[in-house]
Amino acid sequence: MNLVKQQMPTGELTLKVDEARFPLDWLIGFAARANAKRGFLFLSKVLGKHWPVTPRAMQTIHDDLAAQIPPSLPGPVVFIAMAETAVGLGQGVFEAWLRANPNGKALFLHSSRYRVGSVPFFEFEESHSHAPRQFLHLSDAASALFSTARSLVLIDDEASTGNTFANLVQVCRARYPQLEKLHLGVITNFMGQAANAGLSERFGLPTSIGAALSGHYAFQAGAAPAPVAASAQRFEANAERGASPAFGRIGVGRALNPPQGLAMQLAQEIGAGDSVLVLGTGEFMHPSFLLARELESLGKNVVVQSTTRSPILSWGSVGHIVRCDDNYGEGIANYLYNVAPGQYQHVFICHETPASPALMQLAGQLNGRLFHFQSETKIEEIPVC
Predict the structure, then answer these.
(1) pTM for this one?
(2) 81 bridge partner residues
(3) Could you please report the per-residue DSSP string of 241-272?
(4) Measuring CA to CA, which of 53, 81, 318, 355 is 20 to 30 A from 63?
(5) Is 63 exposed, middle or buried (0-12, 13-18, 19+ CB in 10 A)?
(6) pLDDT for position 210
(7) Is 287 helix (H, G, I), strand (E, B) or coil?
């Protein structure tokens, strides 16, 4: 068992690692959050969110978490990924599971902090978050499959209290009482051994959990409280935010098609040894991973990450911070961590929302190019002006 102590601006964090399938330093770093509810962050280095990571490393985590899903789970199986941070992780795990179970009947969807037109939805809460309201949208086809599902797989980057999982399971079981089994998949499981042993009783279903690293932590807040960040959610029920239904937000039962044509085109423009950042925006993460993976397969030196609405302090595993406007139009501050302007020879910004001043600002800050993913096959480069 490894013991790690971190003194940070917001307090002292003590972490005890019980089991690790990968080295701790490869999986996570430590950061301080501008959040009075929780003044620290286990910053994932393999998620593709706050830290630049190769597609190969991300794929390793996807495959590992998928391999820990019990083969005995009865189908159909519904996979749900948690917004904002774990949207790409969840879809990657889902697609890895499909490769290993080509005859499996399954559905993937991810939660969202945006409404998608008139698509029916239900709501649950991520209580510790700076943006607590989460929505799940279901197309008619997704709703039909969910109503026959026997197993539920929930994916997040981290489990600490398990409260968000508990809130979602409660809502899902009320709507779909036929569910028989539950599996939780996370990169880091910090609920502790006693909590892990009681998961089935807590959730009311036979429950398993898979993680790349397991342990538990304690945090002692400092004398100076964590800064209180501005709200990171400004929900308006009828506002159109450009949240697309095309990539998994309302349910998808197959792997997305990778943008091979775009990758081949861009690869011709990338010089030998050039560094490349493929940047997702907000909840739009998995297609950027797919583009980066294609470029990597063509021999390019590429990393992936994404903008986020999560406010983190400049300390520890967070170096340079780029502040940018919200391309979804809520007026919420967005950030890009550990990327400095001019760091990469090529920056390809992937987005689902239409062209906007916020996107132009981001592209200008990074000398990047904008690619509007309207569907898996319709991708338009937006001139930066």
Answers:
(1) 0.94
(2) 110, 155
(3) ----SSSSTT-BSSPPPP-HHHHHHHHTTSPT
(4) 318
(5) middle
(6) 98
(7) helix
